[in-house]
Amino acid sequence: MPFSLTIPSTTEVNMNFTAVSCDEEGDYNIILNDAVSATLTLKVVSESAIPEINIPDKVYLGQEAEVECTALIGKGESGQTEGQLLLETNFGDNGSNVTYNGSDTLEEDDCYFKASISVPIPTSKNTTDLWAQCVIRPLQGDDLLSEKKVIHILTFVNLEGLQFKIFTKENNEFWHFDGNNPNVKAVSSRERTDFSISSNIVCDSVSQTTGIGESVMFTCALEDITNITSVIVTKNSTEFIKEDNVILPYIKDDMPFTLTIPSITELNMTFTAVSCEEEGDYIIILNEVLSATLTLNVECT
Q1: Which fold does the domain 196-299 belong to in CATH?
Q2: More exposed terminus of the chain, fewer Cβ within 10 Å: N or C?
Q3: When comparing pLDDT for 145 and 160, which is higher?
Q4: Nearest Cα to Cα of residue 24 among 49, 6, 45
Q5: pTM to 2 decimals?
Q6: Is 90 exceeded by the pLDDT of residue 43?
């Protein structure tokens, strides 16, 4: 039981709770001999948790996006909230600070209160240095702060008059386009506006055949890539790697393969002691836009 009940004599009854949790809050009825009873009420007080802030990974100029705060606010002895959820930003005119208040009507969740705030991000113009932070302001003591997040408004790059490539993820092919073509006016880009429009992953061989137990390496050159922000590797429906905030040199060796990116000019995928299960197409995606499909064929018979 969540408690221990002791009756040392006909004159005494004790109920003891240790390491109390939220689930144990409530009324406990004790009945002796089907006639004598008592109701004991246990109220559990709680401390607020650090609030969480959620912002879309990418916020584009002119498109709707919101910043959201969620929090569990503590409950005091009186059963009331021990603080208020706020959202502090610089969304005001000319970057002035603005504070948004959460709702006064909160949903109880065991011995906490659930609170949330959603506020639109001002995306109507290319504003720099936007930020937002969630705050629980307690009745007493210091504020509880979430991570302070900086919001970058992403714009579009006009490629009119330029030559560029568009890559397909399915087969690693690409087409050249000329911006002087009247049928092609502009293409939306990824976050950076100073990227090389001819960035590419070029592999010595995109298909290799090997025997069981042998080793094979795919070697790829990274052309005109200024930085690497994310890596994804998939095979059919299996996602082996999905990482952001990549730091070079990069190595991942707890897979059926070892993936190494020693610099922004080179990528290697190595298989050792190959088995039949490792046969298939491996899709590598860098920075969410550059991709290569490497096919491993295993002679299993």
Answers
A1: Immunoglobulin-like (2.60.40)
A2: C
A3: 145
A4: 45
A5: 0.47
A6: no
